[in-house]
Structure formats: structure tokens, C-alpha cells
């Protein structure tokens, strides 16, 4: 069963505040997100066993936050691999991430997990695509039993060889053909790959399930090249009601796996609170 998206939620990615989900850092992230006015916190669930579900549930209740789960896979868990044992490992990891998200009461799993988060050296083959689609169908059924939606993030060519535009993503969704699988668009990636910030959103329409709002250099919103007015205008046209999550990375806050995979080499900011407050004001001014 899928859950229809009809609630606008302003979110913040946990990496804005914390490089891991230890008791201390999780509290800092949740309290800061809440204080800045966010409704949702997106928690990285790349290693599900590192997330303490009971602690997290209590924190979410204390700070009145909804959780989303950010999920990524690497070369050892790549569901688009031609090696069946690697596909199986990715499927198993995705199921553990879904279990963890369900245990903390979240509904939306998001991220670019149709393939590994890495620069590929060659285009995806038919076999790579078929393996990803096949695994995603099984992961979607598993998620549906727990009332969880999958939101497949479209990322740029340096992070996936399977698909890089919204239209390619929609073709992938057609092949997966499950009601709880949605498209996840991110302005940082759109700025690299799309023909502007409007077409992809309009093409997605009610299949758009999750949004990342990130600047072209992944720092402060409004200080780079992304045309946010056009993007939010397009969201209004499709009457998008779902999570709108600010995503930003700096070498000031580091997750050992994700930060290197995303090539976060420089310090775009040091003050998480200032960054987060400015970001939510920026988003609400354009979309509310
Ligand atoms: Mn993103």
C-alpha cells in the first residue's frame, strides 16, 4: 500500500548539524532543527545498525519532528551490479534500512539507491538496469508492507550511470511499476543535468515524492547558480505537497562514508544554526 503525499513538510538533512547519529550529535541535530523551525529531519540510514531506534523515536517526539531516511549504497551493495551476490547484499541492506525507518516511525525513504553512489567508468548495461529494476520491485514490496514509500533520487553523471534526469527517472519508475515508488529531485543535481529547473518537475507531476533543496556548490542557498525561483514556481504548478528538505554539506561536518563519496573537500560554512535558519527562511519565502 502506498501513502498519498499531501503534507508540505520543511526538512533539514542531518548532515547540516551532525556527522553521525550518536546520542550527543543526534540530540544536537534534532534540537537545532526544531529550533530553526523545521518539521522534518532527514537521517542518514546508510548503516542501519548504527541508528538507535528507541533513542531516535524519543528525540523525534521531544522535538516534534517527523523523520525521513536517507539511504545510499556503495560498490559492495550495488543493486545494479552484474554480480548477483552484490545485488543481494544491496537488497538485504535496503530491507534493514526500511526496518529501521519503520522502527523510528518514518514513512519516506529517499536517496540515490537505484545504483551505487560513485563515479562509474562506463555506461550502465541492460543487465545493470534489469538487475536494479528487479531488486527495486522486491524492495518496494517489502517497504509497502511497512507503509513506507521509496523516493528514488536522480543524481548527476558523476554519482550514477543509470539515470541523471527526471525524464530518465520516470522511465525507471514505469519499469519498477509499484505505487509506493516515487521520484526524488534535487536542485543541486538538476542544475547540472536538466534543461532548466522547470521541465523535470512538470514531467514528474504527482510522481514527485521528495525534494532536496541544495545550492550549486552545496552551501548557503541563494549564493550560487541555482535558479530557485523557477524551481519553486514549478513546484507550485504541480501543487507539490511533500517533504522539501534542505541539503548542504561542508567539511565542517563530516560523515566518513558520505562526505568523501560526495567530494566534500571544502568548507562552505561553519555555523550550522545560521545556515539552517537562513535556509528555511529562503525556502518558506518561495514556497508556502
Ligand atoms: Mn540530494
Question: How would you summarize the topology of this molecule?
Answer:
Elements: E1 9-13, H1 23-36, E2 40-44, H2 53-62, E3 66-70, H3 84-103, E4 108-111, H4 126-145, E5 149-153, H5 166-176, E6 181-186, H6 187-193, H7 199-204, E7 208-213, H8 228-237, E8 243-246, H9 258-261, H10 272-286
Parallel strand pairs: 1-2, 1-8, 2-3, 3-4, 4-5, 5-6, 6-7, 7-8
Helix pairs in contact: 1-2, 3-4
The structure holds manganese (II) ion.
Manganese (II) ion binds at residues 153, 186, 212, 247.
In the CATH scheme, the class would be Alpha Beta
Order of helices and strands: EHEHEHEHEHEHHEHEHH
CATH architecture term: Alpha-Beta Barrel
- Low-pLDDT stretches: none
| Ligand identities | manganese (II) ion
User: How many structurally independent domains?
Assistant: 1
Largest sheet: 8 strands, parallel, barrel
Q: What gap, in angstroms, lies between the N and C termini? A: 29 Å
Radius of gyration: 17 Å
Strand share of the residues?
A: 5-15%
Structural class: alpha/beta
Q: What keyword list fits this structure?
A:
288 residues; TIM Barrel; binds manganese (II) ion; 10 helices
Structure, explained:
The chain has helices at 23-36, 53-62, 84-103, 126-145, 166-176, 187-193, 199-204, 228-237, 258-261, 272-286; strands spanning 9-13, 40-44, 66-70, 108-111, 149-153, 181-186, 208-213, 243-246. The protein is α/β, with parallel strands linked by helices and 288 residues long. It has one domain (9-287): TIM Barrel (Alpha-Beta Barrel), CATH 3.20.20. Strands 1-2-3-4-5-6-7-8 form an 8-stranded parallel beta barrel, surrounded by 6 helices. The longest helix is centred in the first third of the chain and has 20 residues, at 84-103. The two termini are 29 Å apart. The model has no long low-confidence stretch (mean pLDDT 96). The structure holds manganese (II) ion. The site of manganese (II) ion (MN) has 4 residues, from loops.
